[in-house]
Predict the structure.
Amino acid sequence: MTKHIRIITTHTTDVSHKMKNLEPFARHKELKFSQVKLDKGPASIECEFDEVLASPYIIGRAMEAEQDMHDPVHAIVIDCVGDPALHAAREAVRIPVLGAGETAMHVAATLGHRFSVVTIMDRVRPILENHMKMYGVYDHCASVRAVEIPVLEINKDHQRLYKLLAEEALKAVEQDKADVIVLGCTGFVGCDKHIKDYLLENGFDVPVVDPLPTTVMVAAALLEASLTHSLKTYPRPPVKLRKGYSIPDIV
């Protein structure tokens, strides 16, 4: 049976071009990907404030996906390395919900002794470091480096983006002793090949983890293994009146 993985983009900006980078994986006859963005919320996620604004609508998208009887969704991927609303969404639905940040960091921790994250802006470093502590991978982190490019400017100059990402990745390997590089934004999807080539040119053969495709394939593996999150950790929310939220009912 074909497994349908829904990718929830966590803001209101159209980034459907990301799906092109998943086409090689979608060609697998038993996998199908779809993407939705938010109708309300911030234009991008770059701080805790953005995450809080987006969270109710992310949860709503997750509940819509689980309740879609016409085109059933079997797993959900939160399309942001900041993993907004990840744990709340797991409480709201029973199908697997994976965050691109949590998944990429755990995968990176299995591929080398220490990893470095190369992200958008230094202002998100505390968020990522706090998440690492919660996920239990902080001791595996060599550094968090930033290219100082806001999310909404990622696609304005790809060559400059590749150059900055590659240079910071090289510094992470040479100076911070990272064994693995994690791209710190799902907006960097597809940049891993450029960074990998640059590192090889400089004598370093290290993995570069691209969070979005990595996470969708981990989701596919969980489905194959019939695994989802624990109800003991993520119990269903109690049924009660919640005013002002246009999200599906808890069922």
Strands lie at 3-9, 31-36, 75-79, 97-99, 115-119, 141-146, 180-184, 208-209. The two ends are 26 Å apart (CA to CA).
